[in-house]
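Running co-folding for deoxycytidine diphosphate.
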Amino acid sequence: MEFLDLPPMLGAAGTVRLPGSKSISNRVLLLAALAEGETEIRDLLLSDDVERMLDALQTLGVCWERNGDSLDYRVRGVGGPFPVKHAELFLGNAGTAFRPLTAALALSGGEYRLSGVPRMHERPIGDLVDALRALGADIMCTANEGYPPLHLRPASIRSGGVVRVRGDVSSQFLTALLMALPLTGVETTVEVVGELISKPYIRITLELMARFGVQVEQHGWERFVVPGGARYRSPGTVFVEGDASSASYFLAAGAIGGGPLRVEGVGRASIQGDVRFAEALEQLGARITMGDNWIEAAAPAEGGLKAFDLDLNHIPDAAMTLAVAALFADGPCRLRNIASWRVKETDRIAAMAIELRKVGAQIEEGEDYLVVTPPARLQPAAIDTYDDHRMAMCFSLVTLGGCRLRINDPRCVNKTFPGYFDVFGQVARAVPVVAIDGPSASGKGTVAARVAEALGWHCLDSGSLYRLVALAAMRAGIALDDEAGVAAIAADLPARFENGLILLAGEDVSDAIRSETCSVGASKVAVLGQVREALLDRQRDYRIGPGLVAEGRDIGSVVFPDAGVKVFLTASAESRAERRYKQLMEKGMPANIQSLLKDLQERDARDAARPVAPLVKLPDAVLLDTTERSVDEAVAFVLDLVRAGG
Ligand SMILES: Nc1ncnc2c1ncn2[C@@H]1O[C@H](COP(=O)(O)OP(=O)(O)O)[C@@H](O)[C@H]1O
Ligand SMILES: Nc1ccn([C@H]2C[C@H](O)[C@@H](COP(=O)(O)OP(=O)(O)O)O2)c(=O)n1
């Protein structure tokens, strides 16, 4: 499975230009297709769900073209039902394409087959199918009644009168009906059965239909009258707003990670209900400012986010972001009235509960609610994303708690926000790392410690971990080439670094691990892949704010490949042997310079030749040869690199 490792973050601030709204993009595409005249669509969202709609429209005989590589499209409307009367459409997991197309095609008088990915076939569509059947449409659910795939056949549509549709499972059923009904040309009243959920999405539908010339008469949230003789007409040019649900991740990032973080593309003038996410964040204490076309969020003036108990029915998608933001609140948080989560890309209540528990939260899960109690300390985890873009995007926020995180199958964000993680990486500041790699006795430990001290950062001497493993294995009588045996020791190493001392099971082994036996032993266990793997997370846990200076052999290549500064520190073998000799003599440990030189050359060869994580100078590492340089000069060199920003 593909994954993405996100580093722990120090905070987030900056400006993000949002990609277009999925809800608006797919509605505008369908309306432009059914309208008379050509529509210029600006800033369309480029994502999987929109691709599904564009492909479908093409199959159905609608001509559209993209202006070069831009986000501007021109759609030539067909001015009524679709001209292609036989088609098979694959719509992936795009609910915003599947539901409205089902309604429009049911009233188009042709034979159509609609299918999607397996999850799409688990998402209910029965309420929409029933409403369309009541109008006379001939629709078969070919696998399970009430679920896609669907087979639509020509039928005589009973136009006019009243049609009823349930509104309490998905508001997309009502949206789909409303958008399709002008195809009948006869006045029709839609009555909503049950309490309509996600009302703001209906507002988007009505607003966009009006822009295309069809004014729906609205009686509360229970009755909608689509006028007779209504025809869609192109309004000329339509600008797609930024996606307000996508905005939620960045607004939350600003509220959690300091900010200010500004999103551009949505604001006070937005027609999307999810802009009200900003109000919810405000209730958590975040500082929100807003213009017509932008929103900015910053952390509360004092302290962290406040615990909340909110009915989130009006912002079901953006509400997921609040479930993760709850990890940063000062007490248990209740998200209420979110039953629709269960029929989205995945069962989002169940998925959220499982994944939030992985990072340490306590969760109470109900049919239509979730209570999140934040943990005292977030813990790193591998987050499963359930082919759900929002799961992936929400969980990136966990890293703002200084916690690294693995996101499995990160490409699921392509559904609505390809490039999400790059944009997140531009506004979130990773805990900085200076990686110093190089051969034995080149001065890595000395330089790393001094650089860390000067910066006030943490320091990791990764070699000492390999030395500790060798010592522990030797003491346990495990052969140093017994990979599984040594790896088991490494995975459960009772080592601690305290007050400048290195402790193994409570015993000070600071000097013992520096002996030549341990040096040789360390280089032997370091060739074992399983041992290296077992020490990886342990090393990554040292990445704590304000920053880390880490030294070893594979810091820049394997442990922290995203380190901002990478140095390859070296010196001639002779001067390194001499340094090591002096070092041992000062410690009163016996040594012989010739055998030290031989040992060191052998170890260099072993470290450089091993198949796993060999010692190499990376192309993006800066070479620092200290044969002719003092420690002070080497330290100053590295500090200059850090200050120059890598
Ligand atoms: N640039 C340098 N010039 C002279 N001696 C150095 C230099 N860098 C390090 N040393 C000395 O060399 C010895 C070995 O350095 P150390 O930091 O332990 O190397 P490493 O961690 O690469 O094995 C130490 O006694 C250190 O003071
Ligand atoms: N990141 C690291 C750090 C050390 N090692 C190996 C390489 C060395 O042979 C041993 C001991 O490393 P250490 O840095 O303490 O060795 P020197 O002090 O440079 O001789 O561990 C490694 O393979 N990867």
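Result summary
The chain has three domains: 3-18+250-429, 22-239, 433-643.
The radius of gyration is 31 Å.
Job closed.
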